[in-house]
Amino acid sequence: MGDGSGGQRDLSLMWFTPTHEGGGGGSGRQQESQNSLDLDGQIHYRMVVDQLGTTFAALSDPTRRGMIERLSHGPASVHGLTESFALSQQMISKHIAYLVRARIVLKTKRGRESVCTLRPAAIKAVSDWAFNYRRFWEESFDKLDVVVNQMKKAEATDGKKHG
User: Fold this and answer.
1) What's the rounded Cα separation, in Å, for the pair 125 and 98?
2) Per the domain annotation, does 38 fall within a domain?
């Protein structure tokens, strides 16, 4: 590449963050900050998010959730799933294909029969993702509790002053 970088490109991002100097003026100055873009991390994040989207889409259908529930007890043939759900084999195959694309189910051939097995890693990824948000909401509710209790104490104090 004639830029002397040995074919390597600088994948760093530049952005500006405002800083305030002095007391009351609030006059802002732009300070340049530079961080390296973690390209592998970004790609991994997008793959995880895209995979989660596919998994959530697969879980959005009650028939597919029922199939996952059935497969949580052990592998089943496509024919066995067809009997369990009273749907045509074509419809069951479409649902299975969706679950396979979402990497929730592994479909293998045993002789002339196709057998479906649950892959719990995809469900665990959803659980891990939801757990992070659960922690966020629990912390938010705890903070809200503190504020509500402070308001109640302030009301009680004001009531005593005026009563």
Assistant:
1) 17
2) no
Q: Give the number of other CB atoms < 10 A from CB of residue 71.
A: 21
Using a cut of 0.70, tell me whether the model's pTM lies above it: no
The pLDDT score that the predictor gives to residue 46 is: 54
CA dist list (Å): 112 to 17, 76, 94, 108, 109: 63, 14, 19, 10, 7
Kindly state the greatest CA–CA separation across the chain.
85
Q: How many structural domains comprise the chain?
A: 1
What CA–CA distance (Å, rounded) separates 131 from 52? 14
CB-based contacts of 14, cutoff 8 Å, min separation 6: 32, 33, 34
pLDDT digits (tens, 9 = 90+) for 26-75: 444 444 333 444 555 555 555 555 778 888 889 999 999 999 999 999 99
Between CA 77 and CA 71 the distance in angstroms is 10
Instruction: Give the residue numbers spanning the domain of 85.
Output: 62-122
